[in-house]
UniProtKB/TrEMBL annotation:
Reactions accelerated catalytically: Thiol-dependent hydrolysis of ester, thioester, amide, peptide and isopeptide bonds formed by the C-terminal Gly of ubiquitin (a 76-residue protein attached to proteins as an intracellular targeting signal)
Enzyme class (EC, first level): hydrolase
Record-linked PROSITE patterns: UBA, USP_1, USP_2, USP_3, ZF_UBP
Coiled coil ranges: none
Top-level taxon in the UniProt lineage: Eukaryota
GO MF terms held by the record: cysteine-type deubiquitinase activity; zinc ion binding
Upper classification of the organism: Eukaryota, Viridiplantae, Streptophyta, Embryophyta, Tracheophyta
The keyword Cytoplasm is annotated on this UniProt entry: no
USP domain segment(s): 313-816
InterPro entries: Papain-like_cys_pep_sf, Peptidase_C19_UCH, Ub_carboxyl-term_hydrolase, UBA, UBA-like_sf, Ubiquitinyl_hydrolase, UBP13_Znf-UBP_var, USP
Source organism of this protein record: Phoenix dactylifera
UniProt-listed Enzyme Commission number(s): 3.4.19.12
Protein name: Ubiquitin carboxyl-terminal hydrolase
């Protein structure tokens, strides 16, 4: 006898869970694809694990877990009313009466209970459903989705600080009992955006927002009158008190109140019975940042032909995430990443290998992103509807919605304080962090590691006045290049600018940056060849200790490449330190050809007739101590910042005059040393390297850092492992400038897995940056594919009309196979 749908559901109740406040609930996006409730077939939420799956993938979850009961969520677009007026805005606000009409489409949401494997369906809501199922579904629908919770956590950026007023907050026993609902401002008729003052129990409306929404400032005015410091936003309180929005007026910030439950109970509030109905401050800020489409109120520049299909999928900007979007578009245009995460690994294979929660697995999320970008499934013109609800015919100006890489961002940025925030980041640092995480993820199968296609070995040659040499090798994945402005090819135009500037100023015409000739900005034009030459050019290394001379001297350093990678990434050092230690961006063009040949940059290694520097001081020779004097330049700059002069001298000496930043790091970590105020003992300072704990060196090496880098970091941070780790992460260029005080030529960085081949390359992509700093502005990627240049500007993908090849920040070259 075939059981009825209700009997079948009851037989599976053991596989149904009622979510707890701490459970992560996914209901907005499939965990292994970019399907949403608006996709064809909707979304299926597992009522046991609370993971969501698209219709095409929910069967895989049933096969893997045996969980049969799902909440099926579908959203269908509502037709627009024929009588909907298009009013002229009279108020600078969005989505408000008199303001801009954002004309966002509305969706109707429907629910069903579905039992696999036969997709037996029961309607929801229904009083006939078992109570456990009703409670589970109600909890899922009320709860904040894990996808959005992650965004909010990133947007808040830093963990809320415990308020200084929370632990000793005095509450007035005035008989106030706050009801569980029906709240209204005590001074006006506002019934939303209400704040409960935790001192006297007054319920008042919040601040007025910039767009005219919000409250009437009565809560703020009450604080100014009474100085009662803390208030909690009504509607944000539920069993998960961590989500409650507590604001401290004197600290002017959202804060944590460890005694919030006690403070609420004082006014008769049973927080476990409340349900969240209001946005927190972080949620409102997030909505205002993301939902406002500036393209609706300003004209974009040059229109490009939109492109759709496999390999032409845009990425939604999650809020200052263009650094990630531009990098990933380029990475997934390389053969190595396409092969690893798309051609040779199916979504199902990745999911079957994933742990219980695939949203936290890097391999799964990289595969998901690869399929999202490369399959073409999500690359189609966004449907627009006319006033009567019919779909408009797509035109050449149609745009795509793109896919939101939220889960990937959560995984790749896990435990990284910067990438997990909503702040703008350096695309270079993200690219290197990505390669590092991918390498770790493929450690058990290094042959599958696609990050190896970017690796190469650099060899540095050091020659001291004795004529003897030392060779050091290191592995890198980017070639960071200085920009020699003195090699500009348009010096005549630049000289004309300097001559014309006084004349223009006399005419009352301001000149910002560089001269404009025929409306074209004139900047220095430096050939890429000059930048590459600067990498290999001889460089003086002062303070190099020669074991042949048994003394510090000046050595000559040159560099070359032992191997050539499959993909050569060139980083243009456009951001330099200006006067007053203020970072500035070089306003310069780089003339980059489509094809380059760096064969001449291959390192030749030890040559016949060359003699290596001895590893140690010659036997019988004793190294005499030599006093190290503090650099007056470093000391004066540090003392000018307010530090004690003696302390500054010690900092310079203990870091071997490496630089102001290194000395400051040492100073900050030794401020409390018991001997910090003792006079400098010149007898104790010699030309020998600062004593470094070998255990600390081994610890950093176990983290994956090179030995030379580890020693330099420990040396400049006073031996602290924590500060040394921070120093390495904050100095990505350190891998290209390791400590050259090493006297041995035995440093080997040979890696049999590093590729090698021809030195001829073709330009395949570039990442450009607009803005004054890598921590602000905007990143855009251009990729050469299918015989044309394509621009990837977040969710916008189109045929590039004039790719800015001379304005790149990162250039990606693909080796030309001979």
């Amino acid at each position: 006898m075939i059981p009825s749908p209700m009997e079948l559901l009851r037989s599976h109740l053991s596989k149904v869970r009622i979510p707890e406040p701490t459970n992560r609930i996914y209901k907005q996006e499939c965990c292994i694809s970019f399907d949403t409730p608006r996709s064809e077939g909707g979304l299926y939420v597992d009522l046991c694990s609370f993971l969501a799956f698209g219709k095409e993938y929910v069967g895989w979850n049933y096969e893997k877990t045996g969980n049969p009961v799902y909440l099926h969520i579908q959203q269908r677009r509502k037709p627009v009313r024929e009588d909907r007026p298009l009013k002229k805005p009279t108020l600078l606000a969005i989505g408000m009466e008199g303001g801009f009409d954002n004309q966002e489409p509305e969706y109707e949401e429907t629910y069903d209970i579905v039992i696999l494997p036969d997709y037996v369906t029961l309607p929801f809501p229904s009083v006939e459903l078992p109570e456990k199922v009703r409670l589970a579904v109600d909890s899922i629908l009320i709860a904040e989705g894990a996808e959005r919770k992650g965004q909010l956590a990133s947007w808040t950026a830093e963990k809320k600080k415990v308020s200084a007023y929370a632990m000793n907050l005095q509450q007035m026993n005035n008989g106030v009992v706050v009801p569980p609902s029906g709240w209204k401002c005590s001074k006006c008729d506002k019934t939303d955006n209400l704040w409960l003052n935790l001192t006297d129990g007054m319920i008042l409306c919040g601040r007025r927002n910039w767009d005219g929404s919000g409250g009437n400032n009565h809560a703020m005015e009450h604080y100014k009158e009474t100085n009662y410091p803390l208030a909690v936003k009504l509607g944000t309180i539920n069993a998960d008190l961590d989500g409650a929005d507590v604001f401290s007026y004197p600290e002017d910030d959202s804060v944590e109140d460890p005694l919030l439950a006690q403070h609420l109970a004082f006014f008769g509030i049973n927080f476990s019975s409340l349900q969240k109905t209001e946005m927190t401050t972080a949620e409102r800020e997030l909505d205002q940042n993301i939902n406002f489409d500036w393209n609706r109120i300003q004209e974009s520049g040059q229109e490009v032909e939109p492109l759709f299909g496999p390999g032409y999928t845009g990425l939604v900007n999650l809020g200052n995430s263009c650094y990630m979007a531009s990098t990933m578009q380029v990475v997934f245009s390389t053969r190595s990443f396409i092969s690893r995460y798309y051609e040779k690994q199916s979504l199902k294979m990745a999911y079957e290998m994933s742990p219980a929660d695939p949203t936290l697995d890097l391999n799964t999320q990289l595969t998901k992103l690869a399929y999202g970008l490369l399959s073409g499934k999500y690359s189609f013109p966004a449907q627009e509807m006319d006033e009567v609800g019919d779909c408009k015919t797509t035109t050449s100006s149609a745009k795509q919605e793109g896919i939101p890489p939220r889960m990937f961002k959560t995984v790749i940025a896990a435990n990284h304080p910067e990438f997990s925030s909503m702040r703008q980041q350096d695309a270079l640092e993200f690219f290197q962090h990505l390669l590092d995480q991918v390498e770790r993820g493929n450690a058990e199968k290094p042959g599958f590691d696609p990050s190896r296609s970017f690796k190469f070995i650099v060899e540095e040659r050091l020659q001291c006045p004795s004529g003897k040499v030392a060779y050091n090798k290191r592995t890198d994945n980017i070639l960071s290049l200085n920009i020699p402005l003195h090699d500009a090819t348009n010096k005549d135009q630049l000289e004309a600018f300097h001559k014309m500037k006084p004349e223009k100023n006399l005419e009352g015409k301001e000149m910002f940056g560089f001269i404009r000739a025929n409306d074209e900005i004139v900047r220095p034009r430096v050939p890429l060849e000059a930048c590459l030459a600067s990498f290999s050019a001889p460089e003086e290394v002062h303070g190099f200790y020669s074991t042949a001379l048994n003394a510090k001297t000046t050595a000559i350093k040159t560099a070359g490449l032992v191997t050539f990678p499959d993909y050569l990434v060139l980083h243009m050092r456009k951001f330099v330190m200006g006067e007053g230690w203020v970072p500035k961006k070089l306003d310069v063009y780089i003339d980059v050809p489509d094809i380059i040949d760096i064969t001449h940059m291959r390192s030749r290694g030890l040559q016949p007739g060359e003699e290596l520097l001895p590893e140690t001081v010659s036997s019988g020779e004793k190294m005499e101590p030599t006093n190290v004097a503090a650099s007056e330049d470093i000391v004066s700059k540090l003392s000018g910042m307010g530090f004690n002069y003696l302390h500054c001298q010690k900092a310079a000496i203990n870091t071997s005059n490496a630089g102001v930043e290194e000395a400051m790091n040492w100073l900050l970590s030794h401020m409390n040393d018991p001997d910090i105020d003792d006079p400098i003992s010149h007898d104790s300072k010699t030309v020998e390297l600062m004593s470094i704990d070998e255990t600390s060196v081994e610890t950093l090496i176990s983290f994956g850092f090179q030995e030379e880098v580890a020693r330099k970091a420990l040396k400049t941070s006073g031996g602290s492992i924590e500060k040394a780790t921070d120093w390495i992460f904050s100095h990505p260029e350190v891998s290209s400038s390791v400590d050259t005080d090493a006297t041995s030529s035995s440093t080997q960085a040979g890696d049999p897995g590093v590729p090698d081949g021809s030195g001829r390359y073709k330009l395949m992509a570039l990442v450009s940056h607009m803005g004054t700093s890598t921590q602000c502005g905007h990143y855009v990627a251009h990729v050469y594919k299918d015989g044309r240049w394509v621009i990837f500007n977040d969710s916008k993908v189109g045929a590039s009309v004039n790719p800015p090849k001379d304005m790149g920040y990162l250039y990606f070259f693909e080796r030309i196979d001979s």
